[in-house]
Amino acid sequence: MSELSREEAAALKEVFREQAEELLEAYGRHALELGHVAKPGDVLKALQRAVHTIKGDSMALEFDELAGMAHRLEDLLAALGSEAEPVGQAFIDLLLACGDAMSELLAAYCSVPSRSPKANASLEQRLDAALSALGSPVGADKARRMRLAVTFSRDCKMRSVGTFLIRQRLEPLASILAADPDPESPAIEKSRTWTLLIESAAGSKALQQAARVPGVSSRVSLRILEEVPVVRELSGPVETSPPSGSSNVPSSSATNFLRVEVSKVDRIMNLVGELVIGRSMVAQVIQDLRDGGEGMAGRLSDASNFLGRSLTELQAAVLKIRMVPVDTVFRRFPRVVREVARASGKNVALEIRGASTELDKSIIDVIGEPLLHLVRNAIDHGVETEDERRTAGKPTVGRLALAAEYEGNHVHIVVEDDGRGVDVERVASRAADLGLVRREETKTLGRDEILNFVFAPGFSTRENVSTLSGRGIGLDVVKSTIESLKGTIDVTTAPAEGTRFLIRLPLTIAILQALLVRAAGRVFALPLTSVLEIVRLSASESGSILGKGVFRFRERVIPLFRLRELLDLEAREEEGGRKEFVLVIGEAERRMAVLVDKIVGEHELVVKPIEDPLARSPGIAGASILGDGKVVLILNVHRLTERRQRLFGRAELLV
């Protein structure tokens, strides 16, 4: 790497880091597969390919500790053989520990600035013990594979002859495996250094002394790369070729995906957003021209239609680039489930469905932590121990499902277990103990309202704090993260049958189909997916209970509010002077009717976050710019339905 500039070396490190991370992720998945296959030969081949690639690339970049670890691990896998019997959990644990160690070494080498990697003596001892148990020559004589770099003397005019002299002196001591540049090529005469890859059991000083030829070499450096068993006899030529036979495990060395920097895609996405605003402005000009006269309106209309079609296609293409399969998140969880189940003393089988379902990259980057909390919670709180399940007449192995599927313009992600379920009465009692609700009020709360307490900050039904739970900082993080992604989360449970968490997420959070409405003299936007129905207000369908407005919707009575009441806006004089519109909005089982003065129409909006903390409001999800240049606030329907509960009180229970 000394021949490369600092920028080139940094770029090469970054390419290696990305590839190595993918290989290590695949390595971890294959290691876990060993516990579920009767004939692990194909899986072992896949592990060997991943480790061999990491070793070779690490040697090229002079990441010696990482290359050494990969080489020892390669020895261990080779010692098993291609026809190995099923391996035990202890061996899988060792493989996973080696994967973790390689990840730590990779992070140390590729950090900015790079850190000195730390050796893991206990892991090396475990590797030696495993190799000894498998009959590998751990204690046998070792040769060393080394990189020998020779800097030519200025007095050396014929460097090809100089390389011949160096080789003559080295051959009795070492095997020369490779040379750069080739001593027979014209490039050797222009090169300042000559690098050799050699293998030898001789001492470093003897090798360096042999390479020091007066008048040829001015400096000699030697770096030990790895140790290899000394082979004293060969029955024939040695060939290096890929393993024969077909493998059911795909290799990670090739990919059908094109890598695109997220920053570049984000830039394109922002430009598309500006073009969408431009289209709205053209449409507004057309409307103004129609109001004032004819002429250019037709031509502008054609141009707007053309622009609209082009933008729609461009937008769809850019959004497609940003879509990433949820498998990039889901594939981390087999190991998580294995380790958490072991720490809890339980036996849990993970079932993954819909891993090819795609979500926006910005959502994929964030959704991992909420799912981790839900999975850990399901195993620790939900799934019973083997003895408890046997007593309850259940299979001793608990089931945990992680699934994703499309639902309109949203993706539903489900985390479901077949455990003991949530004790609703205990949740209500605990909520009262924590001061979240008065104890007498818990008797009037509905089941869904009680279950919603599990998302409160600091809430936990566990009396004692463990390494997995008890601190009450899990599910509140889940809910806040999901809401920041413009999503919702609901929980359903049944005693002795299990618990189901349903996360509902938009496919993307960059572009929004919205309904514009006017209330209190201002225009607001509501996500179109949250608007269930639009009707004109009728006296026969509206009324009041305990002084609270209600609206009859499909044989059901739901709360009725003016939008200005939910947003704490002042009333206007013209309000109520004409027939108003009722929007039925909501999510899951929560419904409410909202009175607005006017329906402006449907619009496609570019969502802009509100960064200023002073300008944030619980009922506002973001903002956008309309065609006339005015700013419109986008309402957060989830927050509005929560506020409706506080305003409506207990009146709906009397219906």
Give an overview in words.
The C terminus is likely disordered. The chain folds into five domains: 128 residues, Up-down Bundle (Four Helix Bundle (Hemerythrin (Met), subunit A)); 88 residues, Histidine kinase CheA-like, P2 response regulator-binding domain (Alpha-Beta Plaits); 63 residues; 181 residues, Heat Shock Protein 90 (2-Layer Sandwich); 144 residues, CheA-289, Domain 4 (OB fold (Dihydrolipoamide Acetyltransferase, E2P)), CATH 2.40.50.180. α4 packs across α5, α11 runs parallel beside α12 and α12 packs antiparallel against α16. It starts with 5 loop residues before the first helix and ends in a 7-residue tail after the last helix. It is α+β, with helices and mostly antiparallel strands and 655 residues long. The chain is 40% helix and 24% strand. The strands form five sheets. A six-stranded mixed beta sheet has the order 14-18-19-17-16-15.
Q: Mind telling me the CATH superfamily name of the largest domain? A: Histidine kinase-like ATPase, C-terminal domain
CATH T-level topology of the largest domain: Heat Shock Protein 90
Rg over CA atoms, rounded to whole Å, is: 34 Å
Would you identify the CATH architecture of the largest domain? 2-Layer Sandwich
Number of helices: 18
Give the class from helix and strand content and strand pairing. Answer: alpha+beta
Strand order of the largest sheet: 14-18-19-17-16-15
Strand element count? 22
**Average pLDDT for all residues:** 78
Shape: flat
Major pleated sheet: 6 strands, mixed
Per CATH, the class of the largest domain reads Alpha Beta
Cα distance spanning the termini: 77 Å
Q: Into how many domains do the coordinates divide?
A: 5
How big a fraction of the residues is strand? 15-25%
Proportion in helices = 40-55%
